[in-house]
From TrEMBL:
Pfam families named in the record: IDO
Record bears the keyword Methyltransferase: no
Biological processes, Gene Ontology terms: 'de novo' NAD+ biosynthetic process from L-tryptophan; L-tryptophan catabolic process to kynurenine
Classification via InterPro entries: Indolamine_dOase (IPR000898), Trp/Indoleamine_2_3_dOase-like (IPR037217)
Protein name as it appears in the record: Indoleamine 2,3-dioxygenase
GO MF annotation, one: metal ion binding
């Protein structure tokens, strides 16, 4: 794949909205063949609460994915089946008030077979990842997509989830603040690819203008992050929502010794251990790092960084796009060769400064929504007054530095390292 004059559509990317793509997610399947999936996903939150999901899943007809006739339909099938599967695993048993204490590893053929087929076509791992939770999981009160030359994307209040576990405003906000960040940052793909083209032509003035423009866009991306605080309660996120997001990797202690086990109608089965959804699976931030030349080091004893690991969880088209972007000369190398050009250096440094600020602001969010609730839960369980959070995928007892993120990385050290590696050319 070459990124000179790229055809954004064929890359699954929108010139305006970036990795959100140009087609808004479908809110139902155009083909009534899939009405049973539409019905189940619509009722998912109440089926979880009444603990009647198992009965409904048993009654689900075995539908092939071969009637899905476009990418946007495949994306809806991925979202719908992914949510039903995670609800089936984590929300089928136990008291109705909380995520299940005993997960169900076996996923029946009527869910497994079409899901595996859809994942294969989209080039995704068989687990609900960032694309399914966020990129392809929004609709607007207005319907469809905003007009590209309007005042930006829909406000948070106008976005609804296509699929959800609890149907609360907090859950919606968790999926849609990333959507706002992606939409705000969408134009960066074209702006920065064009800047690389200009750098090849040694056009410093155009590169400088693109970097200044990009810095202003990243600054706007930062402003979306605090919107979470007013809408999403930390306890709701940590104890109620987060458990549903977990995949089958590292869940042995929870009883998933083989991870998620996908059953097929011929009696065979596929055991799969994959991590759950995380915004670290966003292609936008990896693109920014690649094109700006922000380098991340792999942790000790590991051959790849968490970022590289996360690429497996992106849609195939986005992963291939990043692989092609990683072959481009970086803007850092262009700027570094012109350190006497103060304007150019300052524009580059402003860009990395804003990205670094984004990462600092994000650390504060992770601290509120993961670190503090984990600390409180650990303290409670030491005192015998609270249970460890169900489905939480890390240990909290040893202190915050020991907390593990979705990918099993040391959470806080990873995020701090990622921020500290976001440096400019003349200052850090
Ligand atoms: C309650 C809200 C949030 C929580 C609890 C959260 C949690 C995390 C965690 C634990 C990580 C470390 C990687 C992992 O283990 O998964 C991470 C990384 C990351 N998150 Fe978030 N996050 C939140 C909101 C967001 C939002 C709104 C975005 C916007 C797209 C975002 C984008 C990222 C990115 C890009 C990374 C990779 C690290 C980096 O680039 O520095 N997160 N997040």
């Amino acid at each position: 794949m070459t990124l000179q004059s790229p055809n954004f559509d064929s890359l699954g990317i929108s010139a305006q909205w970036g990795f959100l793509s140009d087609e808004a997610p479908l809110t139902s399947f155009p083909n009534s063949f899939y009405a049973p999936w539409d019905d189940l996903i619509r009722d998912l939150p109440s089926l979880i609460t009444s603990r009647s999901l198992t009965t409904q899943v048993k009654a689900l007809p075995r539908l092939t994915a071969s009637e899905l006739s476009s990418d946007v339909e495949l994306r809806r099938a991925y979202v719908v089946l992914g949510f039903i599967i995670h609800a089936h695993v984590w929300g089928s048993s136990g008291p109705a008030s909380a995520p299940a204490s005993t997960p169900v590893a076996q996923i029946p053929p009527q869910l497994s077979e079409p899901f595996l087929e859809v994942c294969d076509k989209l080039g995704m791992e068989p687990v609900l990842s960032y694309a399914g939770l966020c990129l392809w999981n929004w609709s607007s009160d207005e319907g469809g997509f905003p007009i590209a030359d309007g005042d930006g994307f829909f406000p948070l209040e106008q976005l609804r989830s296509v699929a959800s576990f609890m149907r609360t405003r907090g859950e919606d906000a968790f999926y849609h603040v990333p959507v706002l960040v992606e939409a705000e940052g969408g134009p960066l793909v074209k702006i920065l690819l064009d800047a690389v083209g200009e750098s090849r032509r040694s056009n410093s003035a155009s590169v400088q203008a693109a970097l200044s423009n990009s810095a202003a866009i990243i600054a706007k991306m930062v402003k979306h992050l605090p919107k979470l605080y007013a809408t999403l309660d930390a306890g709701e996120f940590f104890h109620e929502l987060r458990p549903y997001l977990a995949g089958g990797k590292g869940m042995e202690a929870k009883g998933l010794s083989d991870g998620f086990v996908f059953q097929r109608s011929d009696g065979s089965q596929l055991a799969s251990k994959h991590i759950g959804g995380s915004a670290a699976q966003s292609s936008l931030f990896q693109f920014l790092d690649l094109v700006l030349g922000v380098e991340h080091e792999a942790p000790e004893k590991k051959s790849e960084t968490l970022f590289q690991e996360m690429r497996a969880y992106m849609p195939r088209k986005h992963r291939e796009f990043l692989e092609a972007a990683s072959q481009l000369p970086t803007l850092r190398s262009f700027v570094k060769a012109r350190l006497s050009d103060t304007g150019l250096c300052e524009a580059f440094d402003e860009c990395t400064k804003q990205l670094r600020l984004w990462r600092s602001t994000h650390i504060a969010i992770v601290s509120k929504y993961v670190v503090r609730p984990a600390r409180e839960a650990a303290r409670g369980s030491e005192n015998g007054t609270a249970q460890k959070p169900e489905g939480a995928d890390f240990e909290a007892a040893e202190g915050d530095e020991q907390l593990k993120g979705t990918g099993g990385s040391a959470l806080i050290p990873f995020l701090k390292q990622s921020r500290d590696e976001t440096t400019g050319v003349t200052r850090s």
